[in-house]
From TrEMBL, chains A, B:
Domain of life of the organism encoding this protein: Bacteria
Main location: other
Cofactor entry: heme b
Keywords: Heme, Iron, Lyase, Metal-binding, Oxidoreductase, Peroxidase, Signal
Organism taxonomic ancestry: Bacteria, Bacillati, Actinomycetota, Actinomycetes, Propionibacteriales
InterPro entries: Dimeric_a/b-barrel, Dyp_perox_C, Dyp_perox_N, Dyp_peroxidase, EfeB/EfeN, TAT_signal
Organism: Nocardioides aquaticus
Protein name: Deferrochelatase
Gene name of the encoded protein: efeN
Cofactor note: Binds 1 heme b (iron(II)-protoporphyrin IX) group non-covalently per subunit.
Domain Dyp-type peroxidase C-terminal: 223-408
Primary role: Involved in the recovery of exogenous heme iron. Extracts iron from heme while preserving the protoporphyrin ring intact.
A GO molecular-function descriptor: peroxidase activity
E.C. number(s) listed in UniProt: 1.11.1.-
Locations listed in the record: Cell envelope
Length: 420, 420
């Protein structure tokens, strides 16, 4: 993590700040030589071995967008990825989307940045790009971009799971961008400018805002709570666990012949899971804890201990039943119940106003990075659909799968290995 | 502002923190004696001369909810306001929604708090309550609660403005609650628990999340930016300006005979204003600045100076036109163009996913507090509809008006003067 400078901090000082705004009007970032530490000034390098936004400490805010590619030209697609790469590197560094910036350009041209992030620091922004199955073969099976023979075997539409109530305008997509930041205005600014740059080549298919990260991705982060009020992601794969990352998150060089370009990348599963929170809120504490299999306060398994104590699924309870019920969520999704399947979860809470029943349109926007969805996600989701008591309170309304290429090297563009 | 304690901070320490969670499990707030300062620990008193959340320094996040009253019983309505008052006082103090809390109650009862804010500090939460026209007379004109003769003359549905494209499920409401906080999870938790408490008496009609406050309400706050990329609210009425507050925000004791109970309160205008940002982003910088009438970077009027310099509407420009165009937003809405009308604006940016055209469903959730909407809001809105160049990029999809009673005294409930 690199600490930068907040122009907002500089501008807070009153009249003297106006001159500074002019002097540094090119972008969002002031001269690092005058840097002072402050909130939101985290910066993560855009280039590296893996894309940022996976093992990066989970930021508090999300704007996720899925795009349809509206051109049939491979050259235009590649050109867009080049433009997106340059813009992403600038914005994650705290700069403007374009080289000129929001206010310094010619008056007779549209600005190359939309301006709502002027004065805001980098805010830990990460931009993570993925490719959907439709980029390789569209719905009719057409190989629009000459990529069909490079489609990884596991990059295909997820199966229909029992209980799915998918809404078309929240599902699928040829490309995705996950924008995470400490400030939603910074995340929204990034997605909006990438969409602007892509006008004529891509169109937003759906987008989702989230808050209150529901997972920790590093050992130093505490475990946050989802809208059921429970700690979520206690058993997450974390950045420090190289073994688990290698086994369950990063795609290996030999995992897939057609998808060899994806080595060092990952798969991103996105699921918009509505919670029927009004119904949940009328359940007793004991019922809620039995459904989850954990204590609501501490997050400890019902078999005892602390949050991180492994659950004892064999411990007997009353009525000849185990103390952790057979249909408790923690049991159904546990690696020991699913052939060792694990994921790096990175989801967010969402509230999108009101649903048709007068309840909150709220829930968990589930994001998980896995080495192979066939082994690390699908079996767990099927087990949940089959026997998880929590399913009564869940309704999945959106779903998508993307291949997230490895990190972007110097001089490269996002996903370059796929096109060479 | 009172500084409190962050349980999140205390819980960050690892294993030793588990004991603390048990010891202080009753609510969200730990023993103030162990307080340490930290982010999000602002607290604002719930009781006072005026409701908090009006001149309170604008927090960064919003969850706004409008409710329909589903009972015809005045007693049930009053009982709800009493319950809401107690819950609001607890939550704005950093506590749980109910006296027992999320995890300390009997296992065979639903918890009296939903738990997702466990560990989160007060985060500057304010809860501001308002009464809609329907509380006094419903759509059929029925006086459901014996309040018809106390309906203030100005508390009626706003007129239809040219360009309004109102959506029923985003418009109106018998009651409203504005929850503002630095953390969206805290604001969402508050609205969700008030809705839970009101189950059977009220139902959420619509709700709206917002981020990136678009106004400053105190002199110390910098001016934020809306999604057009421009500073917004430069000329806002601010907390320090007692004269303007008395003239334009607080209802006077003699303003309205029927509405004498509203003295010391205000009117809250809520308007969900979609921006066609994709179209806006294709305009040149000069066009954008001409439409707004201000420089995009500094916020200074096109007639020169700094952000706070009064605009010179007479200053000549080129082509025999004034330098600030005749249809520029800053001119059309200026008090000098509208008989001195002023408002205390407190709006937020919003992005609610994607619209039917594949653009972002994004814009400004406009909130303004005024002494009388007839004099301080309607004329300005009509002037905008008539001649503001900005209107081409705006589409108002939701609208509501509420009377916001004065502050809650010791031993009183919200809006008590209306019922006595």
């Amino acid at each position: 993590m690199v600490r930068g400078v907040s122009r907002r901090g500089l501008l807070g000082g009153g009249a003297a700040a106006v001159g500074l705004a002019g002097a540094y009007g090119l972008g969002r970032v002031d001269d690092p030589a005058t840097a002072t530490a402050g909130a939101g000034e985290e910066r993560y390098p855009f280039r590296g071995e893996h894309q940022a936004g996976i093992v990066t400490p989970a930021q508090d805010r999300l704007h996720f967008a899925a795009f349809d590619v509206t051109t049939d030209s491979r050259d235009e697609l590649v050109a867009l990825l080049q433009l997106w790469t340059a813009a992403a590197e600038r914005m994650t560094g705290g700069g403007a989307a374009g080289p000129v910036g929001p206010v310094e350009g010619a008056a007779d041209l549209p600005p190359d940045d939309t301006g709502e992030a002027i004065g805001l620091p980098a805010s830990g922004l990460t931009l993570t790009f993925g490719f959907g199955p439709g980029l390789f073969r569209d719905a009719a099976g057409t190989d629009r971009f000459g990529l069909a023979d490079r489609q990884p075997a596991s990059l295909k539409d997820l199966p229909h799971f029992p209980g799915d109530q998918l809404v078309g305008r929240r599902t699928g997509g040829d490309l995705c961008v996950q924008a995470c930041a400490q400030d939603p205005q910074v995340a929204v600014h990034a997605i909006r400018n990438l969409a602007r740059i892509g006008f004529g080549t891509v169109a937003i298919r759906w987008s989702q805002l989230g808050f209150g990260r529901t997972s920790s991705t590093t050992a130093a982060q505490d475990t946050p709570r989802n809208l059921f009020g429970f700690k979520d992601g206690t058993a997450n794969v974390r950045a420090e666990d190289d073994t688990a990352l290698g086994e369950h998150v990063w795609v290996g060089a030999d995992d897939d012949a057609a998808g060899s370009w994806l080595a060092g990348g990952s798969y991103l599963v996105a699921r918009r899971i509505n919670m029927t929170i009004e119904t949940w809120d009328r359940q007793t504490l004991a019922e809620q804890e039995g459904i989850v299999g954990r204590a609501k306060g501490t997050g400890a398994p019902l078999s005892g201990g602390e949050e991180t104590t492994p659950p004892d699924f064999a411990m007997p309870g009353s009525n000849d039943q185990p103390v952790i019920p057979v249909d408790a969520h923690v049991r159904v999704v546990h690696p020991s119940s699913n052939g060792g399947a694990q994921m790096l979860r990175r989801g967010y809470n969402f509230v999108d106003g009101t649903n048709e029943l007068g309840g909150l349109d709220a829930g968990l926007f589930f994001l998980a990075f896995v080495r192979d969805p066939e082994t690390d996600f699908v079996p767990v989701q099927l087990a949940m659909a089959r026997s998880d008591a929590l399913m009564e309170y869940l309704r999945t309304t959106g779903s998508a799968l993307f291949a997230v290429p490895a990190g972007v090297g110097e001089g490269e563009h996002v996903g370059q290995a796929l096109f060479t």
